[in-house]
Structure formats: structure tokens, C-alpha cells
Amino acid sequence: MLYRxxxxxSIGVRSGEPFRVARLSDKARQILEAGGRIVPIHAPPxxxxxxxxxxxxxxxxxxxxxxxxxFIEASLLPEYQEWQREALVIITPRNCKHCNDRR
Length: 103
Prior knowledge:
The chain has 103 residues and is of the alpha+beta class. The chain has two domains: 2-40, no CATH class; 46-90, no CATH class. It has four helices and three strands; from the N terminus they run ββαβααα. It has helices at 26-34, 53-63, 68-73, 81-90, and strands at residues 2-5, 18-20, 38-40. Strands 2-1-3 form a three-stranded antiparallel β-sheet.
């Protein structure tokens, strides 16, 4: 699952950056989440991203994935890696038009 840090974390994640929660132990995740230091990301469907309509159709057809956060986290063929990097930029606060924790 993807989370966003609300503070700089000692694991090298800066405030506002999305990261895979698997980088944290369960105990650390619970403590940080309870304190509001990290929050889960609720990304939009891929098809809702402007300009990604054709990509969304292909991704769904070839992988079954429809949500942007699931796409970012998935281990896919190298041909998808550039799109995954682009998707990660889309969900950063300065670019996200869909999340509630915009900056």
C-alpha cells in the first residue's frame, strides 16, 4: 500500500513524498499512522487521469489493474516502468488533483 509522509522520515522519505509502507515495520507504521505522520494514499482510477485514457484501457486489458496506486505498486514488465514513474509524479501533492491532502 502507498502512504504519504507528513513529516520527514528517518528512512529517507521527505514530507509529502509517497512511499511503499512495506519499508516500515508494522509497529512503526502503527505509531506513525496513529500520530498522523503518515497517511494512506487514495489514488484515482487510471482512467480518471487526464490524457491516460488509452493507457488505462491497455493497462486494464493487459494486467487487470484499474487504480493508479495499484499500478504504481505492481511488479510489471519493464515496458510499464516509465508509466509507473509518471504515475508516481501525478500523485505527489503538488500534482494530485484528486486527493484530499493537497498542498
